[in-house]
């Protein structure tokens, strides 16, 4: 998608050609809702303005229960594999969503997240040790990706010896279109592994989240086997790529203009609001997972027919001029930064506190240990081809401890 006029003619397969911010700005300013022809012949509707995206995220007329891929890019896979990996709260409407979230939230407590601080710090320190070698390092490959998968493995209680293989499966699944042919085997292998882990946790529970999910009960109600594997799958996918993107995108924006990096070095108290600004400025998620209209829906005066696919651009909403002053500028002290990077409404990201924790630990350590870190002079950012995610392909840095 290279021009605002092209979207009415070309099948929409994501913003694959560079940084999409300028394209989204033009769409946002010129159209309330943009009609997009999808690869399977259907028409999708792209919503880009903050007010409309926020309202749509909480609109019960937009269903998350329909699992058909909005872009027709779903790899062929046995129905039982899909069922055992997509019976989670992100793909559920009310009242199922409330039930699933209540059971998961009871196990995924604030105390459990806070209890991960020492582990996150230890892993971060070990990863940053690797940056001490002279030369150019890829911060995404060496830090941004290894950290969240290590955290999720620890959280779920994945044995240390299994984590390398576990990470390989997850990397294939989150890669999307570039590794679509490998996805069925990776998803099936991961599902088989999760099933075996759940069996082991039932007979020998530990302090991990997976054991807690198995044991969690509310008035006799428990997660079914398919709901358990799907929830574990959701925690893996949602907590891996998004957090890695927050770290990668964030480090790039801080290093892109040296004054941002130096300001945080001088005033560490600005780090918390700076992370919120990084989430707004370059949201890790480009498009919220798609919705399907269960009835005729009106957005900004535009009527969308029942049964339509709706794509909500978090990336665009967070740069909307009608909501944020000078939205393209990075402002670590931006007031009232009510961004939508973690969504809104009943599907607001359950893992947001953990993502913020990981970002805080990483950026604190980077600023302290590598105060003179910089980008190579010839670095040109390349954005990863992804329908849902907004992420750099790599981030070369010169650490200079």
UniProtKB/TrEMBL annotation:
The record's listing under InterPro entries reads: Cyt_P450, Cyt_P450_B, Cyt_P450_CS, Cyt_P450_sf
A single GO BP term for this record reads: antibiotic biosynthetic process
Any single GO molecular-function term of the entry would be: heme binding
UniProt KW Lipid biosynthesis keyword? no
* Pathway(s) annotated for this protein in UniProt: Antibiotic biosynthesis; mycinamicin biosynthesis
Q: Which UniProt keywords apply?
A: Antibiotic biosynthesis, Heme, Iron, Metal-binding, Monooxygenase, NADP, Oxidoreductase
Q: Where are the transmembrane segments?
A: none
Record keyword Oxidoreductase present? yes
Give the similarity note: Belongs to the cytochrome P450 family.
**Protein name stated in the entry:** Cytochrome P450
Species of origin: Micromonospora auratinigra
Q: What is the lineage of its organism?
A: Bacteria, Bacillati, Actinomycetota, Actinomycetes, Micromonosporales
């Amino acid at each position: 998608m290279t021009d605002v006029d092209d979207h009415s003619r070309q099948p929409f397969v994501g913003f694959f050609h560079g940084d999409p911010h300028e394209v989204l700005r033009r769409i946002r300013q010129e159209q309330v809702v943009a009609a997009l022809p999808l690869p399977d012949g259907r028409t999708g509707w792209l919503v880009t303005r903050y007010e409309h995206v926020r309202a749509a995220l909480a609109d019960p007329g937009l269903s998350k229960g329909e699992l058909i891929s909005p872009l027709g890019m779903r790899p062929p896979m046995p129905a039982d594999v899909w069922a055992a990996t997509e019976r989670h709260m992100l793909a559920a409407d009310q009242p199922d969503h409330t039930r699933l979230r209540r059971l998961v939230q009871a196990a995924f407590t604030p105390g459990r997240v806070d209890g991960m601080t020492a582990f996150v710090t230890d892993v971060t320190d070990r990863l940053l040790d690797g940056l001490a070698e002279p030369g150019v390092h890829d911060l995404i490959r060496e830090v941004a990706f290894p950290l969240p998968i290590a955290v999720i493995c620890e959280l779920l209680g994945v044995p240390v010896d299994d984590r390398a293989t576990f990470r390989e499966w997850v990397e294939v699944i989150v890669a999307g279109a570039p590794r679509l042919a490998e996805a069925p085997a990776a998803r099936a292998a991961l599902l088989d592994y999760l099933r075996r882990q759940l069996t082991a946790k039932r007979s020998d529970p530990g302090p991990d989240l997976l054991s807690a999910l198995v044991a969690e009960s509310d008035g006799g109600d428990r997660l079914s086997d398919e709901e358990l594997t799907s929830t574990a799958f959701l925690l893996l996918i949602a907590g891996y790529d998004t957090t890695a993107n927050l770290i990668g995108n964030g480090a790039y924006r801080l290093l892109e203009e040296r004054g941002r990096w130096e300001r945080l070095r001088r005033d560490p108290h600005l780090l918390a609001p700076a992370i919120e600004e990084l989430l707004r400025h370059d949201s890790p998620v480009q498009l919220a997972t798609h919705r399907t209209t269960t009835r005729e829906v009106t957005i900004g005066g535009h009527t969308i027919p029942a049964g339509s696919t709706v794509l909500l651009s978090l990336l665009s909403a967070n740069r909307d001029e009608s909501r944020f002053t000078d939205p393209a500028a990075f402002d670590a002290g931006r007031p009232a930064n009510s961004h939508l990077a973690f969504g809104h409404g009943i599907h607001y990201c359950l893992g947001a506190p953990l993502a913020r924790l990981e970002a805080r630990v990483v950026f604190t350590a980077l600023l302290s240990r590598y105060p003179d870190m910089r980008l190579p002079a010839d670095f040109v950012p390349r954005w990863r081809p992804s329908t849902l995610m907004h992420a750099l392909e790599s981030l070369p840095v010169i650490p200079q401890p």
